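Hi X.,

You mentioned you wanted examples for the new student's onboarding notes, showing what a folding record looks like when two proteins sit in one file. Here is a clean example. The first protein comes first, with its sequence line followed by its structure tokens.
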Amino acid sequence: MISLRGVNKKLGNFKLKDISVDIPDGYICALVGQNASGKTTLIKTILGLCRPDEGMVFIDGMSYQDAESEKKIRDITGIVPVNELMNREFSLIENGRCYGRFYSRYDENIYMKYLEQFGLNPKTKFGRLSKGQKIKAQFAFALATDPKYLILDEPTANFDPEFKKDFLNVIMKFTEDGKKSVVLASHVMDELDRIADYLIYLENGGLVYSGDIESFRDEYRMVSGERYKVNLLKQDIIHAEDRKYGTKALVVNHGYSRYDDSLMVTVPTLEEFMYHYSKRGE
């Protein structure tokens, strides 16, 4: 399990504020929020690249405060960051051999298998790859280290649509034994709606929601219909917006018995939730 307890971290004018979350094993965790909400800072904190000003981070019960534990944490953690980690002058196979020696379970055969699956030539220098190809190479390497946790920061932004399907299939297969977990930060909400079973939602460095996706979907509803009928739910409305053919609102869900029969009631997508929640109070 990945656990954060009372984590505060100030970076310039930005601050992560009192973040306490648990990400159980066997889950694909969607890390979402608007730009500058704290997603990348939270990922860096989980990875030990940013040390909390207050609070603690535990990976499988181990913390970064102990050097031996930190070494064990890094051995079970696969990373696909926004920034490049591999040496631009080395070929992909050279990069694998260079960095693979830091992981006790690195398997070059698995690395080669994924490079082939992802359409990459192992003899190509890393610096000659496109942005999307570089992310594929780093993803292949992360998988070859046999991690327990995969931490992915906006990995699909430069993928073509066809490869996105392969990527999502690999992610789902990675967690199917119930022992491994993925933390996936992405702005592509429809992807996360399809595969995520756990959710962390951040806003301005604070935690809005943390929990399994089904509980989240039980907690909120999108309601559409005539304005006055939607407004009857005023104590439950988070944000309402008048449109050409009626009003649409994000509401706290208290059961279908509260809704007028003429209203359309649906479970919000992550994109709908983010849009309306960010506009609450307007």
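Then the second protein repeats the pattern, sequence line and then tokens:
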Amino acid sequence: MSKRKLTVQLAGPRGFCAGVDRAIEIVERSLEKFGAPVYVRHEIVHNKYVVDELRQKGAIFVEELDEVPDDAPVIFSAHGVPKSVPEAAQRRNMVHIDATCPLVTKVHVDAKRHRGEGRTVILIGHAGHPEVIGTLGQLPEGQILLVENVEQAETVEVSNPDNLSFVTQTTLSVDDTAEIIAALEKRFPDIESPRKEDICYATTNRQAAVKALTPDCDAFVVLGAPNSSNSNRLAEVAKAVGCPKSILIERASELDINWLEGVDTIGVTAGASAPELLVQELISTLRENFEVELKEITVTSEDVHFSLPSALSA
């Protein structure tokens, strides 16, 4: 029996960003340097496949620092941590290595700079996300306020409306964030914005790629973890720009082939913490069920690279 034809459009860029590459390499280099086990506070990046691979190599993932023995090296995840975490590690004389993405560190630096210049800081982001917890933890409580949506931007109360600034989580929807910023700027015309866009290049590029593909797609699949902010945003972007049949899955095994009934063209992308191997796994699954025509559509190329912490770069 002949297979039905299915056009698969692959979004480019997709998958790993420079910050994720760096974080994974930090864990691998630490295992080489110190030997197993090496402890990691929280998932190094939001992807089960990546975490499981590193766990097999000898990484132990914990939620809090008090789960780590004093004499064991510990790595802080790519999402960043509150200032109190490295301070606690220093008090215990622990070997600690910071795998925070440099673009997240930039947000931390900006927040502290704004506060040092006397401004109240507004953080645009999602409550409970590790990156947001880390950024909020850079300043004493009450000196940085979280705003999640336009409604909150229109009602947030600040003690000095003439001396405000904002920073943002790096993995937000570009369009949603623009609406929130517009609402803040309407209320507070003098609010200080970041010197350079906080939403990272990888988030922006992956969302742009999804937007470029969506008009030609009957369905869209995003590979990524359910707790990955940038992956969730990709699925939302696909729906928002005209592809309501859009889902986020972790692995090809989660895809119900019946879901593709009536679909002639499917878009595929991967969040910034999802390895390319998972994309190829999905393509193989589709080939088993369809006569696949593969099209790669790239909106921009990326050549960003971040250096390793000095403790590992030698």
